[in-house]
Every structure is written in C-alpha cells, then in structure tokens.
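Annotated sample (chain length 354).
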Amino acid sequence: MESAYLHLTDGTSLQGTAFGYHGEMRGEVVFTTAMTGYEQSLTDPSFANQILVFTYPLVGNYGVAKPQFQDKHLVANFESEKIWANGVVLSSLPKSPFHYQSVTSFANWLTEQKIPGIARIDTRALTIKLRAHGVLAGTISRQKMRPRSFTARYRYTDVSCKKNVSYPAPKPNTPHVALLDCGVKHGIIRQLLHLGIAVTRIPWNVNPLDIGKFDAVVCSNGPGDPKNWVETVAIIKKILTKKIPFLGICLGHQLLSLAIGADTYKLKYGHRGVNQPVQEEKTRKCYITSQNHGYAVLTKTIPRNFDRWFTNLNDGTNEGICNDRAKIWSTQFHPEGEPGPFDTEWVFERLLTA
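Output written by the structure step:
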C-alpha cells in the first residue's frame, strides 16, 4: 500500500499508510476519545478545518451507512450532508467492515468525499504529544517533503445555511424557535422537532427578530475562534434586549458569553469525545456529555447576574451559564448527544417551560 505522511509544524513527520482521497490537506490536528459514532463526528461542522485523530483503534469497523433524509434539508442519521473534517488519522484500518446498515467502507467514504486519511500511526503517542504541546497545525500528504505552509484557507461561516430553512412541527399551534446556524449539528434540529417545536434555521449573520416572531432563539455549535464571529455576537446582544428565551449550545455558549461581556480563551488541546463529565452546580449532579470544542469561557469574567450552570470535572472549566429569571441558558457540551450520550437532553425542555 502507498505511504502517506502526517507533517506537523513542530518539525515532526509521521509515516503511515494512505487511504481515502489521493490528495493533500491541511488543518489543525486534534484528537477525539469517542469509541463510536465516527460517521457523526466527521459530519459535525464544528470539525471544519481540522484533521481528526481517533484515539480508539477500531474506527471504521462497522462501515458507513447510507445517509437517510427526513427532508431535503435534514439528515436523520448523520450530523450534516457531508464530511467537514479536513483529514483523518487512524492507528489501523479494518479491511472487512460489517454492519447490516453498511453500504460502503470507511476508506471508500473518504474517497467519495475527497478527504485524505492516514493509518498505521501511533495515535497514542500522537495524542500524548498534542496533550503536552497543545494542538498543532498539520498536513496529510503522500509527499515525504514537508510543505512550505501549514495554513488552511477556509471561511468558518461557510458552514452556515445561505437562506432560511423551515422545519414545521408534527402538530399545529406548537412553539416556534429561531435557530441561528453557525454550523448546526442536525441532531439539534431533530431533538427540537422531537419535542414538538417548529424550527426556522437562519444564517449566522441574520437577526431572526427582524424576519418574524419567535417563541425562543437557539444559537448552534460551530467551528473556529468565537471572537471571529463578530456579527453573530452583535445579533445576540440585540436578541437579549427583547427578553426572549435563549439557548446557546457549544459555540453558541461562547458567543452568548461574549455578548454579555465575558471572555473566551483557547484550550491547550480542547475537549472532544463522548465521555466528558460535567457537574450541575446547583444540584451537584454529574452527567456524561458529548463535546467538541477548542475554546472555553473564562469563568472569572462571567457577569454576576449569570450563574455558573455546569463545570467540567476533568479540568474545572466552565460548561454552561444561566439566568433563569431572564430565561437565558447555555451549555458548552452538546445536550443532544449524537453520537451520545443522552444524559442531558432535558436541557432542551427549558424552551418548553420558559
């Protein structure tokens, strides 16, 4: 099999086996500890511009299912219509994947999506390096010579819809939520619809209150530095003045925090996986959550009129804020799970009781 190389900006070059698309791709090299759900992880828009290292050794073992659409704008079993990660790094690649829903292999899926992969890499050693050094820019290439540049040209806002998309609820006369799309996982939309909430998905730079009346606003997850989403932060500031229920998720949590005057910062290696423990401050209950972020809210900068809702039990970082009187909530983790766990789906019910 043909060789491939993972070149890192610290001077490291790792040789492995090429699979997937025959091409070169650059991105920020990050790792996820998830043991399942690689289809959902790679189709999560929050991974845009990143090369994803899977720490679990059996990625690809159940193949890839056929995308199922609830309608033309909503995928039922993936988190978007395409792979958003720039590349994939594995320790091994199963040759004979099997699952009753599988229609193609992991390698063929990457080829179809034009995503390069590299296998037979010591992902344990690579993860230790990323934890010690912090995330690094990298390039997956079939060329042994190191690239001159590691900069990936990408506009984070490309993950958003370009025009409004409506998802009617199964029953009439139900709550209607505006969803600010900064790269929304389709699992968030599916969860809102499951609760009987009608959803209008709106581009990242449009104020939903300028186009109609809504019962609440949700701001989605998305990629990149939250401080680069200046227009969305300005829109959230305007929304908060209207005293309408608001829920921010992942990037949406960070953008809400910036809108109320808090600060954000880049984590050394981020939180990515489906086994991240958080504690609700008021009840002291612990939940296992799905997470995918490289930035966090600086706890000491959160205004006094907002409570610290959740805290990460691994490193003590903030995982959510709330102002129950103002009906404003946000979580750094993903309450919809996808690929799980689903301990915190109840967070969405706040929109029904607001």
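Annotation: The chain has a mean pLDDT of 96.
Annotation: The domain at 157-353 is CATH 3.40.50.880 (Rossmann fold).
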